[in-house]
Amino acid sequence: MDMQDLSPDLGGENQEQSRLTPSQDGATEAPKAPRRPRTRKPKAASETVAIEPTPAVAAAPEPAASQPSGDQGAGESTESGEPRRRKRRRRRRGRGGNRGGENGDGVQTTAGDGNEAPATEDGQQQPQQQSQQQQQQHRHPQKHGRGRQQQRHQHQQQHQHPHNNGAQSDAADIDELVEPDAPAFERSGVLEILPSGEGRLRAFKDGLVATDEDTIIPRELFSVAPLRSAQFVVAECRMRLPGRRRHGGPRVPRATADRIVSIEGLEPAVYGARKPFAELTALDPQPRLTLEHRGCPPACRLIDLFCPIGYGTRGLIVAPPKAGKTILLQNLAFGIKQNHPEVELIALLIDERPEEVTDFKRNVPAHVIASSNDQDIERHLALGILAIERAKRMVEAGKDVVVLLDSLTRLGRAFNNSRKYGSSGRTMSGGLDSRALEVPKQLFGAARKCEEGGSLTIIATCLVDTGSRADQIIFEEFKGTGNMELILDRTIAERRIFPAINLAASGTRKEHLLMGDNEFKTVTALRRRLLAAPPPMQIEQLLGAVKRYETNELMVGGAS
Fold first, then answer.
1. Other CB atoms within 10 A of residue 322 CB
2. Domain containing 206: what range?
3. N or C: which end of the chain has fewer CB within 10 A?
4. 199-202 and 215-217: which strand pairing?
5. 219-247 pLDDT, tens digit each
6. On the CB side of 284, how many CA atoms lie within 13 Å of its CA?
């Protein structure tokens, strides 16, 4: 076997051919000395050291003693030149010459791939080819050791200064005025704070649903005004063109607020000086919210006598299916609005039938916030939380608010089926998560009479006798949290006697605070007399008395 096959391929086929060519003076080729085996282990890809690309400099000629000449013998020149060429090749490999080794990125290169220049007789590259290779290194620095560091540095600069990119202008994120000379206009709505920090003004006429016409509240206004979620805000706006496209669509002009005019009907500074809802002092519900009015249904008069409602009452209407709870809520709404027009009335319908939603919107004099049963769970949760937060903001402004919630059971079901609130891993009987009712309890427990002014009254319905164990647990969880309970009886409702009120089980805590002394004594005596009869007969006797006396005052006075 030839000695060439045993030697390692260090310089490629081109260098091997240059070593086999005869010298210029025609001397015969001398026998080659055997090469020593490689003692230094080539570096791996992870050990490759990045070298700074140096400017193209022509290789300096070696001393004359190392170059073979015609005066010297061929054998002497071959014996003295061969070790020197190996040393030069080793030095080139140490400087990143990339001959049969690795390039700057740690990628193994092979001889004959066209990236090497053929060596001269002394094993050096020609100066012109060496300068071309170094120019390519300057043009493509990512192919060498510093390339990745330079790319990483440029990437960091682009993220620190995104507007310095040539493809984007310096004002890419700045909203532009559509008509700079146009006068400002006012927009109002309920504030909803987005996760990005901006706000949107939702409209009651849209059911507080997000639309493309909602006014934008920039983040800068949150630092100059006491803005919180669910506030009713009046803002001075201008039409602006967004600096960036939303979701890849065209840039559409949007109303953007420049100044906050009022919050809950008050100046921003005046509203900011009031206490937040959590710091208000809670008192017993009083005075009474009178439901009786001329031409009212009998349910309003009976509730005033046996289950009075006060400012700040937390009431439950416990009803089986088809017992008339929805009609009863509508009667409450008409009675409150007729006798107390200053009260802010909100009808909150959760997971309700679509036809019931339409009926409430057309016939009930209240702000109707509804989600029908053909919508998803997240919609039920968002509306329930937003409506109660809206009521809290009005109480902070000193207003009296009444929320009619239908129903608390369906709200609890929605929280139990949600991923966020109903996934603690601990399940009670009936498939109810142990933490599913935490937020509904907080929402229902927000009802109170505040010493500093304002009140929040919540009258919520709760379903029973549905055949569901979970519904029964929800009722039991809320049973002790209210201060008024109105129980509807299935037996009375089956006889088509309305309102189907169970007088023995219904009542209000501390009802003497909502009645006069004479009225309280008379109602107590009347209740004792009626309890001797069965529940259907009790309501029939009361309905007969309501027909005989035009008002409760006359009926209570005649009964005494």
1. 12
2. 185-242+252-273
3. N
4. antiparallel
5. 999 988 999 999 999 999 988 886 665 55
6. 9
